[in-house]
Protein: Carboxylic ester hydrolase
Amino acid sequence: MTEMNSLDAPGEPDAVHAPAGTIVGRRDGRTRRFLGIPFAQQPTGARRFAAPVRRGRFRQPYDASRHGPTSQRVPLFATTTVPEPSVPGDDVLNLGVVAPAADEDRGPFPVLVWIHGGAFLAGSPASPWYDGRGFARDGVVCVTVGYRLGVDGFAVLDGVPTNLGLRDLLLALDWVQENIAAFGGEPDRVTVAGQSAGGAAVLALLSSPARDGRFHRAVSLSGGFFEAGAVPGFLDELGDRLGVPATRSGFGDRTVEELQRAVLDLRDERGGDGTLVLAPFVGDDVLPVPVADGLAAHGHDVPLLLGATGDEFDSGAGSTDEGRLAGTRRTDTLFRAACPRAAAARRDAAAGTWLYSFEWPSPVLGGAAHCVDIPYFFDVLDAPGVAQALGPNPPRDLATSMHADLTAFVHGREPAWARATGAVGDPAREYGRPGGVLVADTTGVFDPVVRSGPGPGPGPGSEAAGAC
Structure:
């Protein structure tokens, strides 16, 4: 018998018969896992810089007992907050399904489709922080999706479809619509969610006319409006570094790993200060207009829950009350300001927009840092790497509250706090502020004065005034 490792699903074989074919995963108690299921053809050879092609029906039972290959070949940093394993192989356009055990009294279940972060350059759907066992326990089918990254997913090149990474996600959502009922999911109740670049992808998809019918609710954790595309001249510099022209054929002569490593090296040389060197492109059929404009025009029938952490990339010694009050931090400009902008763009959306702010400071990272809210949303405080990032005693009740709110939203219930419109002093749900009380409606969380204490607040016309 083959020894199990961290990429394997525990339990006994469990098969489903879906339109995609027979898929054999594992059942562990009342949790069923089906991992590494290809939803598209391998993006290799002539398909490498081409639109994703739907995977045909499996002719033989497909072994879905372990995580599939990842688009990530090189992690974003030597050490990342989220454990992000790189899995070798070419079938990177795959997804995992973690579902409740079906019985006569439960189901069909709502569905959560999770998009990982990583600056559109890295990240892994095989992270143990994204295990959907908490959702399965609470009657939700959880799907984690892999998509093309870096040059292969987001470079703008002559003769190459733009936004290939987003096109991958759209095809994955099509697969969910066609197949998720076989896993006990309800295709008419799909919530798409993501964090960081994944949260930005959620906002981009919500703003896109191409998303119609593919999902019905949306959650963005620490997302933003990152649609500027490549930094000017970046691809030419990358080609020079690799000794190839910045074209489809030139980059196609280099392996995915060579490209990813060169991108990260060049990014670091530019300062690595959080600037996105590759990102979704505006001006095609997927994103015809900037995300804020798209949110004003599309997706008004889709409820949206979004928020950010209090310190994001400004945690530690440099995160001061003065910085919060001034609104000068990267946290405010890159992440938190996107929340009221999204709410303002959707002020006429009948489905509603709700905001949250995660304020619990990790004793290890020195603040409410980027990514520390993920184990709370997934309710996986016992997952590998959590203690290293959050300390030995992360508050259990906070995970219970946050996960319950998200699960209720996925189940179709309206959040207990008031809707947001993008105005200064918008209400929000605040999680984990030291000395704070967890209440349903904390008016003024978006105002840095309220978050940090007394002092001069920003004027009503400033970007920080609406920063969540």
